[in-house]
Write a structure and sequence with these properties.
Shape: globular
Number of strands: 16
Helix content: 40-55%
Mean pLDDT: 87
CATH superfamily of the largest domain: Phosphoenolpyruvate-binding domains
Number of helices: 22
Structural class: alpha/beta
CATH class of the largest domain: Alpha Beta
CATH topology of the largest domain: TIM Barrel
Strand order of the largest sheet: 1-8-7-3-4-5-6-2
Radius of gyration: 25 Å
Length: 584
């Protein structure tokens, strides 16, 4: 009888294949005291292990086939940078010297300290970066323990290979992909991890957080449903037939979607919609181009500051920004200024003074931090103003909660502009400034804020959390996270109305913008700029091209009048059943 194991699907697709277990998770270490005369040798043993781990990663990077998406090598580069960081070199050596302990234990202590910092972060993506620490530490630990970090792929290739592991590092995913991996399933992991992002980029169906996956038998046949997050063990003939047909349909669907790349995102009655992509690294631009993005709706600049000892220089930032703009000529690029917080000590290696905030999500973060720390903010503003010479640029400020913050930021930008002009730098006047609406106070005061900016961008992830007072990563309350809560919809509507009244564009760059179920509702509410993960672009475009605006406005009116989220869900269900979209 078939048995279904559930997890979180992170890369869609259906694979029917055989299980292959690999050992790629964390390692167990114990503390061992060493004598003073052995400390120097133990420090050198650690340094040599770090050098060996570096060589292994470089070999994997160099083996990436030519023509592969650039973001693949970027993940390996980020781990190589982490290996050189003082927090994984000097700090471990100091622990060995101070504690007179073995290198494995010192590395474990430093790992725990770094992970504790990441776990305090309020941003879900940044919090997931603790996985990268684990992956790099595990690679060094395996060298220290003389356990080669090799991925065995010697399996029967008569059927696709489904790799099952506790967890997989990006380097593991790349190695497995080069050896014909068809899909992977892990007991740990997150949809925001680099391995999950790689799976989506490489088109590898994958499921994470699958409890009990380790109990699957080596070589047994399973079905991986990466979209719905199901793994079917011991499938019967009926399940095999059903999923084989679904597999063929999915392949044909993907081929039809690809044909939309150069088609406009336009409703049936001719309403044009701007469809842009969210990116973290300059290397992500290639995926945006492949999926027909109109441009970049959100470029998260904080990733330039991580895994390094000092903050990026003005020139480094300028190079990163202009590389994105040059890769998408004549297309809109929206760059968000630095969005780190008081809980994050990974701000370019600078030492933050003062206690860690009790509630970082409500502390010194986003524009608040930048306004307080001009030394951090000014180099970014200089780089952004210079980047605007490449092509028209939109810059948006995160976590704006009041008009005073906006005015202070504008004053700082004006001062930096004057400073650059005094230095003889010619500047493009086409520099648009916007505010992210992700704090309920900003939505409630959107009419006043709209008079002082060129555009809004609604960050629904934080807006929902702040409006409903819940942390969506907290298992005890995340069931309350609901984008269809009437309060959330009304805050979004207020922002759209304020933008319309002030004649400024309003975009949405949170996860709601990529939810196919919500596209009709958002269009009916007046949203005309969607920015989402590149992998969602073609499906959102397909959805838009099936809709007629005259059908959507009554839906939005009814949803905004609803008294509870369940009523909105029922409205949407009824509407979708009456306007059943067929894949075309």
């Amino acid at each position: 009888m078939s048995l279904a194991l559930s997890g979180t699907g992170v890369a869609r697709g259906i694979i029917i294949g055989r299980v292959h277990h690999i050992q790629a998770g964390s390692t167990d270490v114990t503390e061992r005291k060493i004598s003073g005369k052995k400390v120097a040798a133990e420090c050198e043993r650690f340094r040599q292990a770090r050098r060996t781990a570096t060589e292994e990663l470089r070999a994997i990077r160099d083996a990436i086939p030519a023509g592969s998406p650039s973001d693949i090598s970027a993940f390996i580069e980020s781990h190589l940078l982490m290996l050189q960081d003082a927090t994984l070199s000097d700090a471990v050596v100091k622990l060995i010297e101070d504690r007179r302990c073995n290198a494995e234990w010192a590395l474990r202590m430093q790992r725990d300290a770094l992970v504790a910092v990441f776990e305090q972060m309020d941003d879900p993506y940044l919090r997931t970066r603790k996985d990268d620490v684990d992956h790099v530490v595990t690679r060094i630990q395996r060298v220290l323990l003389d356990q080669p970090h090799t991925i065995e792929t010697d399996v029967d290739d008569s059927q696709p290979t489904v790799v099952v592991a506790e967890d997989l590092a990006p380097a593991d995913v790349i190695t497995l992909h080069n050896n014909g991996l068809a899909a992977f399933v892990t007991e740990a992991g997150s949809p925001l991890s680099h391995s999950a992002i790689l799976a989506r980029s490489l088109g590898i169906p994958a499921i994470v957080s699958v409890r009990g996956a380790r109990l699957l038998q080596e070589g047994e046949t399973v079905i991986v449903d990466g979209q719905n997050g199901f793994l079917v063990a011991a499938p019967d003939e009926k399940a095999l037939q059903q999923y084989s047909e679904a597999q063929a349909e999915e392949k044909a669907w993907r081929e039809r979607l690809a044909e939309l790349k150069n088609q406009p995102a336009e409703t049936l009655d001719g309403t044009h919609v701007h469809l842009r992509a969210n990116i973290e690294l300059p290397e992500d631009v290639g995926v945006c181009y492949e999926n027909g993005a109109d441009g970049i709706g959100l470029y998260r600049t904080e990733f330039l500051y991580l895994n390094r000892e000092i903050a990026p220089t003005e020139q480094e930032q300028l190079d990163a920004y202009t590389s994105v703009m040059l890769a998408l000529p004549n297309q809109s690029v929206t760059i968000r200024t630095l969005d780190l917080g008081a809980d994050k000590t990974l701000d370019g290696g600078r030492q933050t003074t003062g206690p860690v905030a009790n509630n970082p999500a409500l502390g010194l973060r986003g524009i608040r931090l930048c306004l307080q720390d001009a030394e951090l903010f000014k180099p970014q503003l200089r780089a952004l103003l210079k980047a605007a010479n490449t092509s028209p640029l939109r810059v948006m400020l995160p976590m704006v909660s009041n008009l005073q913050e906006l005015q202070q930021a504008k004053a700082m930008i004006a001062a930096v502009r004057e400073e650059l002009l005094a230095e003889g730098v010619s500047l493009n006047q086409d520099f648009k400034l916007g505010a992210m609406i992700e704090v309920p106070a900003a939505a409630l005061c959107a009419e006043q804020l709209a008079e002082h900016v060129d555009f809004f961008s609604i960050g629904t992830n934080d807006l929902i959390q702040y409006a409903l007072a819940i942390d969506r990563i907290d298992d005890q309350v995340n069931y309350l996270y609901d984008p269809l809560h009437p309060a959330v919809l009304r805050l979004i509507s207020m922002t759209l109305d304020a933008g319309k009244k002030a004649n400024i564009p309003v975009a949405m760059c949170g996860e709601m913008a990529g939810d196919l179920r919500l596209v009709p509702l958002l269009l009916g509410m007046g949203l005309r700029e969607f920015s989402t993960h590149p992998a969602n672009l073609l499906e959102v475009k397909h959805r838009i091209r099936q809709l007629e605006l005259s059908d959507l406005e009554p839906l939005a009116e009814a949803a905004l009048s609803a008294s509870d989220a369940q009523s909105v869900v029922e409205l949407l269900d009824d509407w979708h059943s009456q306007h059943q979209a067929q894949r075309a």
